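Annotated sample (chain length 149).
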Amino acid sequence: MRCTIYSPVVDHQAIEAVRDVLPGWLLHWEGEPERWNSASFKSAQGTLTFNSLEYTGPLDPFSRIILGTSGHFWRREDLPEPAKTELLRFVGGTKWLVGVVGTSEVFSEDVFLKAALELARRLNGRVFNGMDLISPEPPGQAATVPPRP
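Output written by the structure step:
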């Protein structure tokens, strides 16, 4: 299981929101808690790792991901032009990418998505699942994925 959170802000403290949906899981930092490179939550179910990526210069890994995602949505013929324009603006305004990886086959996809969507909600971001950008709903509501034709 993997996805990427696209965020218009850089807020390393937002990882605390994940603790709320993974109570009892142990958190390990790589880097400082205020500016971590990687944050891993561990339990008997497996490990959920969040990897931080920010812009460092032209054609860096961050820029290549943004360019690739923009190209993906630009070529999507199933999207109406207003939706495509909004998605491209959102992707273009991304300041922070957080890759999320679940490292166990025992790990529940519901728990994985709940943690990723909670962090995205806290960051006012969206979760890219490889095909669509999923907007998290306010707490207590389910996230919706646009239907594919």
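Annotation: The CA atoms of residues 3 and 129 lie 5 Å apart.
Annotation: Strands lie at 2-7, 26-32, 35-43, 46-53, 96-102, 126-128, 133-134.
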